[in-house]
Each structure stands twice: as structure tokens, then as C-alpha cells.
């Protein structure tokens, strides 16, 4: 079972929420962050390179020093204030009239080390190292990770009772997504939440934030090694997560665009696809208008945009392994039968001929990138389900890169956890 605890969050003072809260560090480049950041924005802490002119390098020592300085200043100025006692929090996000409710809590680093916090993607050491530096220098989890867990009726009921009361924060972001936060400070409710997770929730599943989770575990191990009196209960053993029930989450498609046809003509490429797919023309330009995007109809059906036309590709029976939770994924089918076999793209992590587009940007973005000449063709995939993600994580297997896209992203700055 998972180990959790409440914490005394550092969070925006009343009335400053929209000024402080910011998108996650990894969804904006430095120039975008500089353009967005107001005086009190958390971006000055998560992307402090924007405080230099010209913008500094993300990994320069002066940038790290500025992050620490800004975190201190935000607290001294009263823009960020610590709660008086450890609490749990409920955080809701609303997109397209669908709302998901997550519990903000602290998870234990040992659960990650022992596999109770389950991952579905590999991490890169360089990205882990970068996130580890930020946790270490701040002695804090400035941004939360994004977890899921199998639904629990009593936890759902506690959350429902909480959100029936007035919230602490409520605002709409620049994408028109709604965000709301409630504080759970009742001692009996806090104790019961801890008890339910301890006795009834068997695992957490990393939805988004694999590198931040790994970095938090590494900092915890580092501090453990430095403490001869380590007990496992110290605050540095815990890190901040927002945990959503499985049924609240919806995974969006994560699509691919490719620079060239690996020497094929368009006609020959379409013929080559017919060995493994049923290929049909879905839409084409009409009356001077671009072709209407074709959305995959279901699992093992793909959209392909090539030569101003959208095609439907349906994988033929026997071309993939139904008994393998990885082999049956559409990202695996596409990678094996098209990207590798025909286009010569062997490593999705390193090959410069391929790029990835989150489903939040729509199929029109795929079409735009091909029509502009930047890319030669695009593939849209049917999204993975939360049940598939959980089954794969439970099996101990790893999904191919760029398989899942979660939206909305967690807003940073609504709660911060310090390691002391």
C-alpha cells in the first residue's frame, strides 16, 4: 500500500493566485516564459533565466542562484505564504466541460524505489539531473508530479464533500481551463485520508512527471546518505503529488510528424503500406479548401496526412501481438510497421527526422506542419486508455516514448512542499 502524509503548503496569498500561478516549467521555452511572466509569476522561480538580459542559459550557476533568491524573496514579500499546519488539498481542473478532482499530498520516495509508485516511461539521466538540481538547491518541490490511482469510493466521497464547500482559489487560465483549490484542515478527515491510502490504495501510477519523480527519489536518497540518524520519517523522504482517481482522467492522442519518405515516392510509399494495412483515401482538398482532417475511428486505425490528403490506415490481423500489452499498442504498431520498417526511424528518442505533437493542438496542427513544407507526412493515433496504462505499469513493462498526453497540465505555484 502507498505511504502518504499531509503537508503545510507554501502557496499564494489570497488575491494573488492568478499573478503567482504559472504553467509548468517544461511547456514554455525561455522566450515564451519571459513574455508571459508578470512581476509575481512563479516563472521567475521555475525559469529564472528570464531575469537576465539577454536571457541566461538554463543550466548556468547564476540561473540556479537566481531561482533560490527569487523563492526567498517571494516569501519575504508575502506573495507566497506557508499554511500554519499540515493539510491535504483538493485541486480541480476543468476542460471542455469535464472536471477532474485530485488530492494534493506527499508521497514517499521509498514507494518509488520499491515499485509501489509505478512508471510507464523511461527517463533520461540528463533530465533527471536537471530536476534533481532544482529540488536540491531549493530544498523544495516547487512543482507537483501528476499521479493516478484506482478509484476508492470513500476517498471519492471525501473529495465530493470537500468541493461542496467554498474553495480557496478559483480562476481560469490563458487556455480557458478552470482551476480550483480547497484546503482540507479538519484533523479527523486528514487522519482518515491517510488511513485509506495506507490500507486500501495499493499503488500510484505516474501519469506525468517521470523525471520529477525520479529526481525527488534521488534527492531523498542523497539526504538519507548524509543523515546518520535517518529514520525514514523525515520531510525529505516525501515529495508533492496531485493524485487523481483513474476514472477522472482522459489521455489525449500523441501524434507524429516525419520529415521525409526515406527515398520512397508518395505512390510507392502508399503501395508499401498495403502489406500491413488496409489503406483508403479519407478526405482530399475540394473547391480550393484543404482536406478535412480524418480522426482515427478506433484502436489500430490510423490517420495519415500525405500529399494534401488524409488516409485511413487499418492494421491487418496478424500484424501485431494481441497478447502483448506493449505489442498491441498503436504506437508500437506504427513504430514497427511504418516508422522502422519503411521510414528507417529506429530510435524515437534521438532521430531528428521525427517530431511529436500533443493531441491538445488538434489534427489541424499536423496538417499545417506538412502543408508548410516543414514535414512530409503526419500520423494521428487513437489515444491510449487509462486502463491500458495501468495494465502496462502493473506488468512492469515500459511504453514506447511519447505515448500519452495528459491535459490540462497541472498549474504550478498553487502549493509548494519544502523538504524540512
The helix fraction, in percent, is 25-40%
Please give the alpha-carbon distance between the first and last residues.
25 Å
Relative strand content: 15-25%
Low-confidence stretches: none
Strand tally, please? 21
The SS-based structural class is: alpha+beta
Shape: globular
How much is the average pLDDT?
95
Count of separate DSSP helical elements: 13
Radius of gyration over all CA atoms, rounded: 23 Å
Biggest sheet record: 9 strands, mixed
How would the blueprint of this fold be written?
Blueprint: E1 4-5, E2 10-12, H1 17-20, H2 30-36, H3 43-46, H4 61-76, E3 80-82, E4 88-95, E5 98-108, H5 109-113, E6 117-118, H6 125-138, E7 140-141, E8 145-149, H7 153-163, E9 169-172, E10 178-184, H8 187-200, E11 204-208, H9 210-226, E12 238-245, E13 251-252, E14 254-258, H10 266-273, E15 277-283, E16 301-306, E17 309-315, H11 330-340, E18 354-358, H12 363-371, E19 377-380, H13 386-395, E20 405-406, E21 417-418
Parallel strand pairs: 6-11, 8-12
Antiparallel strand pairs: 1-5, 2-3, 4-5, 4-10, 5-12, 7-21, 8-11, 9-10, 13-20, 14-18, 14-19, 15-17, 16-17, 16-19
Helix pairs in contact: 4-6, 6-9
Walk me through this protein's architecture.
This protein has 420 residues and is of the alpha+beta class. The protein is built from 13 helices and 21 strands. A hairpin with a 2-residue loop joins β4 (88-95) and β5 (98-108). α4 packs across α6 and α6 crosses α9. The radius of gyration is 23 Å and the shape is globular.
